[in-house]
Design brief:
The protein has helices at residues 4-9, 11-27, 34-50, 55-67, 79-93, 98-109, 121-131, 149-156, 184-204; strands spanning 157-164, 170-177, 208-213, 216-217. With 219 residues, it is of the alpha+beta class. The protein has a 4-stranded mixed β-sheet with strand order 1-2-3-4.
């Protein structure tokens, strides 16, 4: 049975993550390297554990979270699908079971908002973990005068947390935005599709998605 530690320590996989992030640096995207994929992996696992899913399902979500962006090494366009195919080959070669490979690659193949859908609990947890990773440290451009809207919105986020309510009824994304850097409306302009997807993912897990920005409940 394949484990997250095997995935994390595999030198080929580490190379693909490093190289996919280099591709996104060249394209001017925010950080998608080890900080992002490790955060997503751990958050996806924690979401399922908190909701009472089995440790094994949580482990599969953690693996999917770690591998979810490797397709960017090929191209940003359709990176979810190319990443799923890459993950299939890597996991199959490592001796993973077909049923577990299917769960992981379906989650990876369904995580990008242009084509995504929470087809199973692992996919839903991956979507929520990935799409709520909004933070200043993801912005690599240090020239504020050249910020595009994505840089500006991410840089304006001074605090962010994604939690499940104590009654396990709501998934709450709480964000503090410095409005002297970016208007709250700018967040919706670039992230509305992601928030709609998060709502679908939360529904899949029996939760209601709630967005709180600067103390105001917006969704």
């Amino acid at each position: 049975m394949i484990t997250f530690e095997q995935i994390r320590k595999d030198p080929q996989i580490r190379t693909y993550i490093q190289k996919e992030d280099e591709t996104l640096i060249a394209l001017g995207y925010t950080e998608h390297s080890f900080a992002h994929v490790c955060l997503v992996a751990d958050k996806a696992r924690d979401i399922l554990l908190t909701l009472g899913y089995s440790p094994r399902e949580a482990e599969l979500a953690r693996i999917a979270g770690y591998l979810h962006d490797i397709g960017n090494v090929i191209n940003r366009i359709d990176h979810a699908q190319s990443g799923a195919v890459m993950a299939f080959r890597l996991l199959d070669k490592m001796g993973a079971e077909a049923e577990e490979i299917a769960t992981i690659i379906s989650a990876i193949g369904n995580h990008d908002e242009s084509t995504a859908f929470p087809v199973n609990p692992v996919a839903a947890a991956l979507i929520l973990a990935d799409k709520t990773d909004v933070r200043r440290s993801r912005v690599r451009n240090r020239d504020f005068s050249t910020f595009d809207i994505h840089d500006r919105v991410n840089y304006a986020v001074t605090e962010a947390s994604a939690t499940i309510s104590e009654d396990r009824q709501r998934f709450i994304l709480t964000i503090t935005i410095d409005t002297s850097i970016s208007a709250v409306m700018d967040y919706f302009e670039i992230f509305l599709d992601r928030m709609i997807l998060c709502r679908k993912a939360a529904d899949k897990l029996g939760l209601r998605f709630q967005l709180v920005i600067n103390g105001q409940v917006l969704l």
